[in-house]
Write a structure and sequence with these properties.
The structure is a homodimer.
Chain A (H helix, E strand, L loop, with lengths): L5 H14 L9 H8 L3 H13 L3 E4 L12 E4 L5 E7 L3 E7 L5 E8 L7 H17 L9 E7 L3 E3 L4 E5 L4 E4 L1 H8 L4 E4 L1 H12 L8 E6 L3 E7 L2 E2 L31 H4 L1 H11 L11 H13 L3 H25 L3 E5 L1 H6 L1 H14 L2 H6 L1 E4 L6 H15 L2
Parallel strand pairs in A: 3-6, 6-10, 11-14, 14-15
Antiparallel strand pairs in A: 1-2, 3-4, 4-5, 7-8, 8-9, 11-12, 12-13
Helix pairs in contact in A: 1-3, 2-3, 4-5, 6-14, 8-9, 8-10, 9-10, 10-12
The structure holds a DNA duplex.
DNA sequence: CCTCGATTTGATAACCCTTTTAATAACGGT
DNA sequence: ACCGTTATTAAAAGGGTTATCAAATCGAGG
C-alpha cells in the first residue's frame, strides 16, 4: 500500500516510528527523527501519540554532554500481549510476547503428520494458544490483543484461508473461520517465510538495509525478499519459493513433484543424502532423526572431521549456486541465512558457501552483498507472526 | 523513495496522473480520480497544474448521456522533445519522441564491437543524438528537454557511471561526464532491462498489474521486476540478472565465465545451437547472421516445418523452466515476454513455453500468472529511456 | 559555593501544503 | 423548466516544517 492520502502518511510514519523501537532499542526523539527523515517536531508528535497510547515510555536516563538531557524512550513492556503460532508439519509452537516483543511464554506440542483434518489441526492451534496463556500466572485471554498463525504452504491472508498446504493435502481450508468458531481472539494468518523475513527485518540485520534477502534452510527451504524496505509478497502472497526453482534441469526429484529443485539439493534431507554418499556407514547418521544427524554432522564439522567437512563442502556447492541466483536476480545488500540447518552449522557454513556464491554471482551484485548468519535466537516464525499481530491489532 | 513528507505525496501523485495518460490514453478527471484512488477535486487540481504546464490538453470531445459533458484529456503533443538512446554492443539507436511519447524520429548506426574506447563510444552516442535531431525539420537541440541513454551492463544512475560493461571491458567509465564534455543536453543513464520494463509498465499490459515480470529474450537475456507497481532495482541497480542465474548446475559454459546460466540455454546463440543440433545442415541457418537465422527459423515454425518445430520445442524447455523460476520466486500477476527473439516467434513461442512453465511452477503462483507476449512495437529500450528522461527533466 | 550564560533537547505556535467534503457553477438532455 | 452529470471553487481537516520559547544540564567566573 503506497500512501496516496495524507492520512496514510501518518499511519505509515507511526508504524515506522514503532519499528525503530523494536528489539528493545532505546532512542531519543531526535534519533527517531533522523532515522525517519522527518523533523523533530513530527517525531515528537507521533511519539506523544504512542506514549499516550501506552506503547512507548521514557526511561528517565539522562545523557551528559552539556545541554538539556535527551529523554530516552523505549517500548513499554506488559499487556496487551501477542501470541505468535508456528504451525508446522510436525509441531505447533505458540509463543506469547509482551508489548515490547519480549517473549514471556512458550508452549509446544507435537502434531502427527498424518493428523491432517482441518478441524483437528485448528484444535491443536487453539489448544496451544490456551496452553501458552495458561502457563502464565496472571495472564488471561482478555489480555491478549491478537494471534498470528503461520501456516505452511500458500496462505491467503485477506481471506484467512489456507489456499494450499501440500503436507496435509489441504486446498482452500477456511482456517480463520474454523479458528473463530473455537476461539474468539483476533487472528491473522501468514506464511512462515514471510514471518521469518519480518522478524529479520525488525530484529535482525535486515532492518538496517533497504534491500535484503532472508533465506531459510530447514527441512524445506525458501526465502523472503525485502525491496526498498518492504516485504515482497507477490500477487498471491507466495513470492519467495526459491526452494522450488530449478537449479539442475532434469535433476533429482523433489517431493513437490518437480525435478531439480533447489530444495532437492539444499533441504535437510539432501544434506543427509550427501553424508550417506560420502560415508554410507558414518557414525554421524542417526537413523530416523534428521535433526539429530544434522546436529552431529555440524559438531563433527567444527572439529574438522574429514567426512563432515567433505559433506559440508559438497553441500555448499548447490547452496552457493542457489544463493548466487538470488543475488543475481535481486541484487540485495544483505543476504541473511537462517533456519535450523543453518543454525546448527553457524559461521562455518557461510564460510564454505561464500566462495561458491562469489563464483556464480556477477561481480557487481556480489560486491554489493554481505552474507550473514541469522542472529535471531528465538523462533523467528512465532516472533514474526507476533509482530504482525501487534501491528495489526495494537498499533493505532 | 517512499513518501514521508506531504510534498512527496503531490509529486508522486503528479507522476501517477501523468502515467495514466501515457500511450495516448484519453481520460476525464473522474477517470483519473478513480484510477488513483483520490477525490475528483484533487485529480482536478493536479490536472490543472499539468495543463498549465502544457503537458495535458482537453480534446473538446463531449460525451452524451445527459449532464455536463466530461472533458476528455490527453497528453499534448509537441515540444519539448525527449531522446532515448539504445546503446548496445553492435549499434546505437537514437529515437526522438514528442511530449506525448510519440516517436517522431529515428537514427541508427552500427558500432563495431571492437570499438571499445569510452571516448569513441560516447562520441557515437552524441553523433546519433545530433543525427536524430538533424533528421527533423524545425527541431533543434534547444527543443530537446533531455536524453536518456541505456548502457549494457551495470549502470550507476546517480553517479552517471558505467560500472561494468563486459562487452567493452569497461570498469567505472564516467559516461555522463564524458558526454557532458561533448554535448550540453541533460542526460541520464540506465540499464536496458530497466528501460524495457519501464516501457512495458507505461505502454504495455504491465501497467494494469501491480506485480509483473518483464522478460527480455535477445542475444543476452534478463528481466525486470515490478513489485507493487514499482520497478525493483536492488542495491546497485542490477536486479534482474536472470540470464546469469544457474539453471543447469555445471552445465554449458556461459560467456560470462560461469556455467549453466539461463542465458547459455535461452540466449539467441543457444537457440541457433539447438537448431544446428536438430539439423546440422538446415537451410534455415544463415552463417554469421543470428537475426536472419532466427527470422527464418520463426517463419519455418509458423508453417510447421518439422525441424523448426522440434527446435522450438527443445528451446521451450529450458526457457519454460527459467520462467517458472521467476514465477515461483516472484509470484507475478503478469509475465511479459519480449525482446527480438520473442518478437520473431510471436505467440507460438508462448504456446510452446506455457506447458513447461506450468510443469515447473507451483500450482498457486502458476494459477496467478498470465503469460503474454510484449505488444510494444517500437524499440522498448529507447522508449523507456525517453520516459525516464521525460519524468526526470520535464515533469514538474 | 553560587550565579550566569552557552548549549542541547522538548514543546508549542504559526504557517504551508495536500487532500477531502461540500457547495456552486456549467452544461446538455428530457 | 427541471434534472443529472461534470467541473470548479471554497472551506475544513490534517500532516509536516520552521521558528520560537521553555527546560535542563554543564562549565566558567565571581
Amino acid at each position: 500500500m503506497r500512501p496516496r492520502l495524507s492520512g496514510d502518511l501518518r499511519r505509515a510514519n507511526r508504524v515506522e516510528v514503532m519499528r525503530s523501537f523494536y528489539g528493545g532499542r532505546t532512542l531519543t526523539r531526535g534519533d527517531v527523527a533522523a532515522q525517519l527523515g522527518v523533523s523533530v517536531a513530527t517525531a515528537g508528535t507521533i511519539i506523544g501519540e504512542l506514549t499516550a497510547a501506552g506503547l512507548l515510555a521514557e526511561t528517565q536516563s539522562t545523557r551528559s554532554g552539556g545541554g538539556r538531557p535527551a529523554s530516552q524512550l523505549t517500548m513499554r513492556a506488559g499487556a496487551p500481549y501477542l501470541v505468535g503460532v508456528d504451525l508446522a508439519e510436525t509441531h505447533v509452537i505458540a509463543e506469547i510476547f509482551d508489548q515490547a516483543m519480549t517473549r514471556i511464554g512458550h508452549f509446544q506440542m507435537p502434531v502427527a503428520p498424518t493428523d491432517d483434518d482441518p478441524d483437528s489441526v485448528v484444535g491443536h492451534v487453539v489448544d496451544s494458544i490456551q496452553g501458552v496463556i495458561a502457563g502464565l500466572a496472571g495472564v488471561s485471554a482478555a489480555d491478549v490483543a491478537g494471534v498470528g498463525v503461520s501456516l505452511p504452504g500458500q496462505v491467503d491472508r485477506e481471506g484467512g484461508v489456507s489456499v494450499h498446504a501440500p503436507n496435509w493435502g489441504w486446498h482452500g481450508v477456511p482456517f480463520t473461520s474454523l479458528f473463530t468458531k473455537r476461539c474468539d481472539l483476533p487472528v491473522l494468518l501468514d506464511n512462515p517465510l514471510k514471518a521469518i523475513t519480518l522478524a529479520e527485518m525488525m530484529f535482525g540485520e535486515a532492518g538496517d538495509h533497504d534491500d535484503s534477502v532472508v533465506v531459510n534452510l530447514g527441512t524445506g527451504v525458501g526465502l523472503g525478499v525485502v525491496a526498498e524496505g518492504r516485504l515482497l509478497r507477490g500477487r498471491t502472497n507466495s513470492a519467495g519459493e526459491w526452494g522450488h526453482t530449478v537449479l539442475v534441469a532434469d535433476g533429482l526429484p523433489c517431493h513437490c513433484g518437480s525435478r531439480g529443485c533447489v530444495e532437492a539439493y539444499v533441504g535437510a534431507a539432501a544434506l543427509l543424502d550427501l553424508l550417506t554418499e560420502v560415508d554410507p556407514d558414518s557414525p554421524l547418521l542417526v537413523p530416523g532423526d534428521q535433526a539429530a544427524t544434522v546436529a552431529k554432522l555440524a559438531e563433527a564439522a567444527r572439529r574438522a572431521d574429514p567426512v563432515a567437512v567433505a559433506t559440508l563442502e559438497r553441500f555448499a556447492r548447490p547452496l552457493g549456486m542457489a544463493l548466487a541466483n538470488a543475488v543475481n536476480m535481486l541484487n540485495p545488500e544483505l543476504l541473511v541465512v537462517g533456519g535450523w540447518v543453518s543454525a546448527a552449522f553457524g559461521e562455518p557454513l557461510l564460510a564454505a558457501v561464500e566462495p561458491v556464491v562469489k563464483e556464480f554471482s556477477l561481480t557487481v551484485p556480489y560486491d554489493a552483498v554481505t552474507l550473514a548468519a541469522s542472529r535471531i535466537a528465538d523462533n523467528p516464525v512465532s516472533l514474526g507472526m507476533a509482530v504482525l499481530a501487534f501491528e495489526t491489532f495494537v498499533l493505532p
